Structure formats: C-alpha cells, structure tokens
C-alpha cells in the first residue's frame, strides 16, 4: 500500500500529501481554464497536461490503499473528477471503495459512498454499474442501518443507495422495491406516533431523515402506477403531519415530496385529490408566510419561497419553470419530477452537473437531450477569449465615462 503512494517515494507526511493532492487539482483546473479561454500567452501542451493529470489520478487510486488520511485525500480528488480513467480502472476503484466503506472513518465512508455514486454515473448505468451496485449495496445498507455509524456517513450511504439504484437497476423491480423499503425504514421513524405526536428527533437524525426521504422520492419516480397508488395512500397523510417538524430542511424536503407525490398521483388519475386538502393548504399557507423571529432569516426566506411554490401547485397545478443552461444548450425543469431528478444529480456532482448534462449520455438520455452535440471548429473558434473580453469591457467603460462626463459638464453650465 504505502510503497505505491507518494509517501513511500518522498517520505512526505499525510498532511503534505493532502495539500499536494488538492493543490494539484487546483492547478489542473487553472490549466484547463487557460486552455479553454486562451489569454494570448504561451501555448500550453494540452496532451502533456492531460497525461500529468492521469498520472496523478493513478497515483491517487494507489493511495486509496494507503493510510486513512492519504485515502481521504485521494478520495477527495476522485470526488472532483470523473474521467475515462475511472471507467478503465473501475474494478480497482470498486475494491478500494469497498475497503474504505468497511474499515474507514466516518469521513472516509461518506466520501467513498459519494465517489461510488459518481462512478455509477460515469459508467452510464448498464451492466457494469449494476455489477458494482450489487457488490457494494450490502455494505451501504449495513452502514445506513448502523445506529453507531456517523451521521454524515449514513446520509451519504442513503444518497448513494438512491442514486445508484436509480441509474443502474431501474429495470430491476426487486432491487427497486428493496431500496424503497430500506429508505422508508429510515425516515418513517420521524412519522407521528399513534397519538399523532411527532417524536423528538435525536441530534443529527433530521439530516439523515432528509437524505433518506430525498433518495426515496427519487426512486418513487420509477414506480409503476400500481405501486404508486399504495405509496400515496400510505405516505401522504403521514407526510402532512411532518410539516410541523422542528427542522427547516426536513420540513422543506417533506413539502417538496408531497408536491412530487401529488404530481405523480395526477399523472395516473386526472381526478386525483389529496385527502383533507383544505387542511393541507392551510398548513402550507402558514409555512409560506412564516415570520417567526426565532428562526434564522435565511431559513425563513428559503422556507417561504419553497412552500409558495408547493401551495401554488397543490391549488392550481402551477409550477415555476426553470431553465438550466450549459454550453449552447439548456434543459427545462418544468415539473416536480424533473426537479427531484436534477437536484439529486446536482447534490452528488455539484458544479460538475452541467458538464455531465453536456457530455454524459446517461444524463442526456434521462433529460431527453439526445446524443452529445459535436461543435465544429468554426463555433469553437468564434468563442471570445478572456483577454478580448477585457479589452472590449475596458473600451466600453472608457466610452461610457467620456459620455457621462460630457453630460455632467452640461449640467454644471446650466447650474
């Protein structure tokens, strides 16, 4: 393990290795930026930069077998990049992730679960992703069910189970039902008891319930109509009660899930209505206008915004459409189903989601974008460089300043 990594070669400490990995990723990003935009300076050899990045990634995969801190650093770089190398060495990566999930700290387990989600997305679903999911699913399940495991690790495992099942086992009804049941067992502990009272959440469990509920709602979008009817009858009344939860993020996740379930219900039955809809709308109105001062200002603003959207949809089937732009394309988020799917991918890939929307066949298929576009040299050549933008903005600023100065001089003469 150690002889394969940087530490065995240079004698560097774990802290130095972490710094080296992160600084390399930063410099690689800067190099990419220069290559894309061009500043008129010295031309960088793109092939050399790519080879250096791949060498570093190979080194990081070796470091996954090293000591804990080195593994966390290596996992961090893999978390930021999803490239061809991961696909080529998927078995090695899967074995190392399995070791991290079994023997790592809570931080390492959380990172490994997220990297596994990225690997499944990079593999584009299919047999390879399904094979990896079947291998790591028992470990993810064990961590999620382990009350002694760290909350961040359990949250990350909940998201990984939802995402990996979504992209790799969508056509396997048995896997889908098992994953739904597992996630339900986590967030249903937040449901009211027989007396109708919400349980007092233990520290950190609200975040776990939120992650499990969001992963569950992602998988619900795959369910057939017969299964959906059962889920709607079981969960909608209980979720309405959870709108009174003391945790703002869980309340928001519950509100969005209710809107998603109602949309799915209306898709299978145009006459679908929520039981006691008047009470639900009254609760949503209260949350959409919540002005309690004991809550943080940002929390109140976020809650009011989300619950206004949920209320408008429940009452009028009105959804606030959003367009996500990437490259020369864009995708319209025009339903709660699409929003849940997009948010799930964004949570895993963060800023990389736009890149995947542009080039990843799996995401493009999910959002109905067709094959990746191939832009010809003319389009690429017409892209304005950062240096040209700077010159243009400077000239425009000077012209604007001169014009305004003339106007100011006239005002002075009049006065």
Automatic annotation (TrEMBL):
Origin: domain of life: Eukaryota
Protein name: Interferon-related developmental regulator 1
Organism: Nibea albiflora
Lineage per the UniProt record: Eukaryota, Metazoa, Chordata, Craniata, Vertebrata
Gene responsible for this protein: IFRD1.2
């Amino acid at each position: 393990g150690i002889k394969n990594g940087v530490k065995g070669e240079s004698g560097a400490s774990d802290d130095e290795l972490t710094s080296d990995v992160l600084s390399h990723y930063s410099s690689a990003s800067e190099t990419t930026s220069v290559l894309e935009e061009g500043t008129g300076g010295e031309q960088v050899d793109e092939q050399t930069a790519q080879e250096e990045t791949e060498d570093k990634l190979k080194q990081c995969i070796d470091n996954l077998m090293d000591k804990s801190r080195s593994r966390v650093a290596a996992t961090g770089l893999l978390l930021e990049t999803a490239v061809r190398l991961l696909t080529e060495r998927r078995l090695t990566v899967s074995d190392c992730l399995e070791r991290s999930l079994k023997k790592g700290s809570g931080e390492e387990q959380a990172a490994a679960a997220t990297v596994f989600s990225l690997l499944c997305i990079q593999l584009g679903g299919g047999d390879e992703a399904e094979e990896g999911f079947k291998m790591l699913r028992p470990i993810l399940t064990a961590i999620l069910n382990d009350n002694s495991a760290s909350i961040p690790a359990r949250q990350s495992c909940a998201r990984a189970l939802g995402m990996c099942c979504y992209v790799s086992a969508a056509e396997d009804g048995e896997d889908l039902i098992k994953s739904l049941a597992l996630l339900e067992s986590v967030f249903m502990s937040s449901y009211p008891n027989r007396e109708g009272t919400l349980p007092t959440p233990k520290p950190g469990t609200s975040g776990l319930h939120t992650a499990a509920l969001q992963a569950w709602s992602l998988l619900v979008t795959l369910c057939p109509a017969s299964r959906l009817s059962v889920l709607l009858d079981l969960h909608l009344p209980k979720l309405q009660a959870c709108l009174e939860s003391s945790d703002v993020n869980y309340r928001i996740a519950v509100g969005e899930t209710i809107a998603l379930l109602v949309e799915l219900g209306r898709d299978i039955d145009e006459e679908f209505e929520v039981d006691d809809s008047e009470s639900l709308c009254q609760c949503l109105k209260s949350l959409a206008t919540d002005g309690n001062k004991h809550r943080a200002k940002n929390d109140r603003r976020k809650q009011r915004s989300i619950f206004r959207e949920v209320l408008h949809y429940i009452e009028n089937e009105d959804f606030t459409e959003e367009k996500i732009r990437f490259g020369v394309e864009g995708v319209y988020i025009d339903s709660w189903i699409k929003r849940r799917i997009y948010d799930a991918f964004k949570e895993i890939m963060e800023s990389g989601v736009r890149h995947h929307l542009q080039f990843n066949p799996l995401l493009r298929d999910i959002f109905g974008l067709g094959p990746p576009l191939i832009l010809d040299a003319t389009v690429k050549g017409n892209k304005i460089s950062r240096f040209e933008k700077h010159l243009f903005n400077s000239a425009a600023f000077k012209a604007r300043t001169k014009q305004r100065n003339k106007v100011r001089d006239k005002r002075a003469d009049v006065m």
